[in-house]
Each structure stands twice: as C-alpha cells, then as structure tokens.
Amino acid sequence: MAVRACGLIIYRRLQSAPSSKVTDGIEYLLLQTSYGTHHWTPPKGHVDPGEDDLQTAFRETQEEAGLQASQLTLVEGYKKELHYPVRGKPKTVIYWLAEMKDYNTEIKLSEEHQAFQWLKLEDACKFAEYEDMQATLKEAHQFLCSKE
C-alpha cells in the first residue's frame, strides 16, 4: 500500500509589490529538513488514522511551521497529487494551496526542520531539487496568475 502524505503550499504576497505584476510579489514557504539530505519542501506529513487529507495538511503545517489554520486562507480549486517512490515503496503526496493572511506571521519550526525560507518562484524551484516539486510550484504559481 502506498504511503500517503498531505501538505500545504503556503505563499504570501509582498506588501510592496508593484501593481503592474501582482505575481512578482508572491513568495513561497519552504522548510529544510533536519534529517537525510536536508532537502527543502512545503510543510507536509503522513495521514494519521481517522484523519482526512485536508486535516492532515493543516495539522502538519501547524506542527512543522507553527501556523494555525486560522492564519491561512485555503485557495479554492487547487489540489495537486504527486506519486513517487521512497525507499522502493510508492508514496502519494497531496498538496493544497494556502495564502498567509498576515504577511508578518512568525514561522516556528519543529525539530523536523532546521531552516525555512520565503522564496520567489524561481528561487523556490532551485531549493526544491525534485522535478515534480518544481513543476508543482510552477503549476501553483500559474494557477494564482490565472486568478488575478
């Protein structure tokens, strides 16, 4: 059976973004793991028994980044499912898109992560080494651009 994980791609809008291109003023939150290869990902984690996928995404975001569901606005209409092998076993990760309500909200990392960054799309893709994560960030960005 595939391992199942869920998370949120969290973004915030720069307050000083030039009004001509709103999407230039978007930054994505990536967390650096304190284990393994120290890769960078959005907050995510395994689904607990009795939990639905979206509950998992919000719980993991709270545990890993210290963000409450009330501090985020879930973006309607975006959901991305990734499938890839981890140590020879299939893994499914589902991401939703969420916007920070307050630009200045503090991020509080758990022991699972050693650093975080707010990054514009291009830099976020450089930090997220995996192609499917890069593609997901670009797709989420396109989705946001199309809504503007």
How would you classify the helix and strand content by structural class?
Answer: alpha+beta
The largest sheet, given as strand count, sense and whether it forms a barrel, is: 7 strands, mixed
Number of helices: 3
Number of domains: 1
End-to-end distance, in Å?
40 Å
Mean pLDDT: 92
Secondary-structure element series: EEEEHEEEHH
Gyration radius, rounded: 15 Å
Organism: Ibidorhyncha struthersii
Family: Belongs to the Nudix hydrolase family.
Keywords: Hydrolase, Nucleotide-binding
GO molecular function: bis(5'-nucleosyl)-tetraphosphatase (asymmetrical) activity; nucleotide binding
Task: Please tell me about this protein's structure.
- The protein is of the alpha+beta class and 148 residues long.
- It has one domain: Nucleoside Triphosphate Pyrophosphohydrolase, CATH 3.90.79.
- Strands 1, 2, 3, 4, 5, 6 and 7 form a 7-stranded mixed β-sheet that branches.
- Helix 2 runs antiparallel to helix 3.
Q: What descriptive keywords fit this protein?
A:
about 150 residues; alpha+beta; Nucleoside Triphosphate Pyrophosphohydrolase; seven-stranded mixed beta sheet; about 25% helix; EC 3.6.1.17
List the helices and strands and how they pair.
Blueprint: E1 3-13, E2 26-33, E3 40-41, E4 44-46, H1 53-65, E5 72-86, E6 89-100, E7 113-119, H2 121-127, H3 131-147
Parallel strand pairs: 1-6
Antiparallel strand pairs: 1-2, 1-4, 2-3, 2-7, 5-6
Helix pairs in contact: 2-3
